[in-house]
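Sequence in, structure out.
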Amino acid sequence: MKNIELLDDTIYGCFEKVAKKFSDHPALICLGEKVSYSELKDMVLQFAASLYQLGIKETDRVILYLYNLPQTLIAYLALQRLGAIPIPVAPVYTSYDLEYLALDSGAETIICMDTNVNYVVEILPKTPLKRIIITNIVDLVPWWKRFIVRSFDRVPSGRFPSGKDFFSFKDLLRDGRSFSLPPFRLEGGDKTALMLYTGGTTGFPKGVPLTGGLFVLRVIEWRRASEGVVPLEESITALTAPFYHIIGQCDAMTPLLVDGGTVIVFPRVFLDALFDHIQRYKATNMFAVPALYRMILEHDRVDFYDLSPLKFCGTGGDLLPSYVADRWSRKFGIPLYQAYGTTESCGCITASYARDGIPPLGSIGKIVPPNKIRLVDPSTLEPVSPGEPGELLVATQYAGNRYWNKPEETADCFLNIEGEVWYRTNDVVREDENGWLYFLDRSVDMIKHKGYRIAAAEIEKALQEHPTVLASCVVGVPDEKVGERIKAFVVLKEDIRGISSYELMGWCRKRLAPYKVPQYIEFRDMLPKSKVGKMLRREMRAEERKKLQEV
């Protein structure tokens, strides 16, 4: 088996070396079109040359307000070539969200879809934005395909405003052939290479500057996780995670920066299209949130397709219900390899490596090199005893040490301990004697009931394993006698009738210690989630506290 080597400690440096070595290999597949590494590199350099001509330079911040498209990866790599800093954001954000991100980041350039350019136009007078580059989903497909899909109105399209501040992605790509670029500066991996936004304790998202060196280390380990079942240079990745999330970035960039594999890109993930592409292009790798695996298992046409090419299926971003892991393993004959990470740590802190065999049930993997961890008491930050649960602190090479423009939250979350910066995850985990870690809960979401510290996520997991439950959210409700009482909010699957809270409590009693069983269960049609799909427990807690104040 070939060894994975560190090609460079910059993102573009790695891509350039891989593109040279695998010039004729397919790098991307999207909408039925294949793009080779040499073609991708040419487009990256052409687009970079046009951006340079527009005045974009080193350390400039550029918002990528795009779906998963070849254009997204081209723009990302072109900005890396210039030393500029891409800021991928969710294309579902409205003008309200976008205005905050533009003001906070200070970005003067945005690359967006024609379908969401109206939001950009709305905020222009109130933000530093001065260059708007617009693309359409089918900009890079052959003309005859564009003609067909537009004739049958199969592709959403939006307006293209006129004016000196608006530029066409396609035109810039073409015009870049006539422009030149300055030499690529091979700088150290400690330079900021990208910025992602994550949730903030004050209610506003926090920008997380991440270094190129750390990102490169992360994608190397991302590839090492699957090399036990997928040989190097043979990976074909079905990209299901959004590129604005660190999971999507690691999954998309790993083949392009490490081993010359192929990335199948989906502007939107529709299950039948996903199944068809796995079958047609023999996809070997996929990384998705647990909810997507559950949707695949419950899809009524999944057996019409051959998904046997999949050799490594990773999951993260949420707890993996044991019944989903068990059903997946029995149906497809391969395990779901769970990983755990944060935006601040640039992705994986732990991962389940195929070389270690089937991971223990409920494990989030082992520590990813070169991470170092500490498990501490959340109140005192003193180390806990071996085998005991504790809040996870992590330190690593090239790691960032701040939030963008957020000194107070930086001080809360980035701790200097014995001269080294440790990121405070606010997550409670346990490590067993073999080095496997188990996620218990976010420390801020621990429920204190009768002196016990109870993980809300553990109760949610038990509820979601009931065959009628689609989603659940558990919070602590203040109570003078016991500290907090446990309340669960439950969403049932469609067309389910006759299930009672009493029955669900009985289900929990068979799976949880008596003090962990919810005292109240309320049925809802939906539960609040952030725009990146995370459960907003704080909203449910706030709602319950408001009710108590009104009594």
